From TrEMBL:
Protein name: D-2-hydroxyglutarate dehydrogenase, mitochondrial
Reactions accelerated catalytically: (R)-malate + A = oxaloacetate + AH2
Molecular-function annotations in GO: (R)-2-hydroxyglutarate dehydrogenase activity; FAD binding
UniProt similarity note: Belongs to the FAD-binding oxidoreductase/transferase type 4 family.
PROSITE patterns given in the database record: FAD_PCMH
Positions of the FAD-binding PCMH-type domain: 51-230
InterPro entries per the UniProt record, alphabetical: FAD-bd_oxidored_4_C (IPR004113), FAD-bd_PCMH (IPR016166), FAD-bd_PCMH-like_sf (IPR036318), FAD-bd_PCMH_sub1 (IPR016167), FAD-bd_PCMH_sub2 (IPR016169), FAD-linked_Oxase-like_C (IPR016164), FAD-oxidored/transferase_4 (IPR051264), Oxid_FAD_bind_N (IPR006094)
Length: 475
């Protein structure tokens, strides 16, 4: 029976699963069909533990042909599906809302080829990001994206959310580094856009449609992606800053002085530091400051790169912008510093309920949103923290409370979306809209743009079986 956790939402015009359907899939994917409620528990619930569906069926195809047969059948029967990779998404997009069939890419984890001259990697969509990075690293290459969830997220999930992460500053977005892909439409039709070319202006660049479409237009089954050279050595500086203006001055100087060796420029405020200290027992290598900056550098000449970073830091010290900081070149120390920043999402969860926002803002307005939010919610929240990819203009604003609090939520939304819209920011910088944010899309996109999105959805998925209730708004 379909349990409705979302009283304002009705199940769409989809069929209910029958025993005959399960028999069909069991024949197609012997031993790779899960129906037991306890086996499905993890896949029915999102990483944050705030969205939960009641799917009764999880399918684990290994090949593109199998995905095609699954979708052809589901489309014919009008059975809704949700594609799922590592289930690390943060907007409720990767789990069913009602009883959608979960199509998992867990077993689509084969590497197809690696050209170590061009740096092109071809693989199936279910490869785990960290596994790919360690594979290409043997050829002195690295993946063009890096994020805290790398140990679980799948490359297909990364493409589907157009994940950003901590090295977007250096390597750019997946819209640039993905060279080709293969996807299956709702009808089962396999779309071959498997180019491995750096330059290819022959017609519409269809692969871009699937990047960032959160599983609503097709299921990505294979990917070809350009891997940059692995930096010969990496250094990390972690610095205390007296004000957010100082953070911005250091950023400007870092771009100027570190140029091509700048890999990442991240920031966190003191409330963020308190979070990982209180909740994860991590220790800061620098004394207390209102803000902290994490700078990562890496290039092709370790000695030269280190000299550059040292000269830069000395300059910042002598101009009085920095008074305390630490530099790491050794991998354990680097990992410890990154842990302070990358384990923030995990640390916040310990507080209870997370109100999670991921916005793009002009740097001149960037931190003002956190101050305004703190004033607005007052003592109702456990914490209000601001951190993120400041080098890309991307703020992660999180509010926490012991449990979900309706009053607190009504202070946060729609205030935050109106605020971001007023300054022409984006209400979803890198996590997507998923289930949670889709009805706020008009705060960042025009009606004409959303109308065209709806027409594209209708063309590519006429029965609306692919990840319903996600990305597109109700109206
Ligand atoms: P899932 O969560 O399984 O799915 C995400 C969406 O993609 C869903 O809508 C799903 O239906 C769809 N999907 C999945 N696979 C496919 C496929 N093969 N074809 C079509 N659709 C598919 N995100 C960032 O951008 N930057 C970060 O720095 C970042 N850091 C994170 C840190 C942590 C600790 C966590 C938990 C998450 C973080 N995220 C970050 C969010 C998340 O990791 C990314 O969105 C990631 O790209 C999702 O990959 P996944 O395989 O887990 O996808
Ligand atoms: C990060 O950059 C992720 O750490 C998660 O995008 C952000 O949890 C968040 O707010
Ligand atoms: Zn992020």
């Amino acid at each position: 029976l379909t349990r409705n956790r979302y009283p304002d939402l009705k199940k769409g015009p989809y069929a209910d699963l029958t025993g005959q359907d399960v028999d069909y899939f069991s024949n197609l994917l012997p031993g790779r069909v899960l129906t037991d409620a306890s086996d499905l528990e993890g896949s029915n619930t999102d990483w944050l533990g705030t969205c939960r569906g009641s799917s009764q069926l999880l399918l684990r195809p290994k090949t593109t042909d199998e995905v095609s047969k699954i979708l052809e059948y589901c489309n014919g029967r009008k059975l809704a599906v949700v594609p799922q990779g590592g289930n690390t998404g943060l907007v409720g997009g990767s789990v069913p809302v009602f009883d959608e069939i979960i199509i998992s890419t867990q077993l689509m984890n084969q590497i197809i080829s690696l050209d170590d001259i061009s740096g092109t990697l071809e693989c199936q969509a279910g490869c785990v990001l960290a596994a790919l990075d360690s594979y290409v690293s043997d050829s002195n290459l690295t993946m063009p994206l890096d994020l805290g969830a790398k140990g679980s997220c799948h490359i297909g999930g990364n493409l589907s959310t157009n994940a950003g992460g901590v090295r977007l500053l250096r390597y750019g977005s997946l819209h640039g580094s993905v060279l080709g892909l293969e996807a299956v439409l709702a009808s089962g039709e396999i779309i071959d856009c498997k180019s491995t070319l750096r330059k290819d202006n022959t017609g519409y660049d269809l692969k871009q449609l699937f990047i960032g479409s959160e599983g609503t237009l097709g299921i990505i089954t294979a990917v070809s992606i350009l891997c940059p050279q692995k930096p010969k050595s990496v250094s990390v500086a972690f610095l205390g800053c007296e004000s957010f203006e100082t953070v911005l001055s250091i950023f400007k100087q870092a771009k100027h002085s570190l140029g091509e060796i700048l890999l990442a420029f991240e920031f966190m405020d003191s409330a963020s530091m308190d979070t990982v200290r209180d909740n994860l027992n991590l220790t800061s290598p620098v004394s207390e400051f209102p803000f902290y900056v994490l700078i990562e550098t890496g290039g092709s000449d370790g000695k030269h790169d280190e000299e550059k970073l040292t000269a830069f830091l000395e300059n910042q010290m002598s101009s009085g912008l920095i008074s305390d900081g630490t530099v790491a070149t050794e991998s354990t120390k680097i990992a410890n510093i990154w842990g302070l920043r990358e384990r923030m999402a995990e640390g916040l969860m310990v507080d209870g309920y997370n109100y999670k926002y991921d916005v793009s803002l002009p740097l001149s307005k960037f931190y003002q949103l956190v101050d305004d939010m703190r004033d607005r919610v007052g003592g109702l929240a456990t914490r209000v923290v601001g951190y993120g990819h400041v080098g890309d203009g991307n703020l992660h604003l999180n509010v926490t409370s012991p449990q979900y609090d309706e009053e607190l939520m009504s202070l946060i939304e729609p205030f935050i979306y109106d605020w971001v819209s007023k300054y022409k920011g984006s209400i979803s910088a890198e996590h997507g809209l998923g289930f949670k944010k889709r009805n706020f899309i008009y705060h960042s996109k025009s009606k004409s743009a959303v109308d065209l999105m709806k027409r594209m959805k209708l063309l590519m998925d006429p029965n609306g079986i692919l990840n319903p209730y996600k990305l597109l708004p109700d109206n």
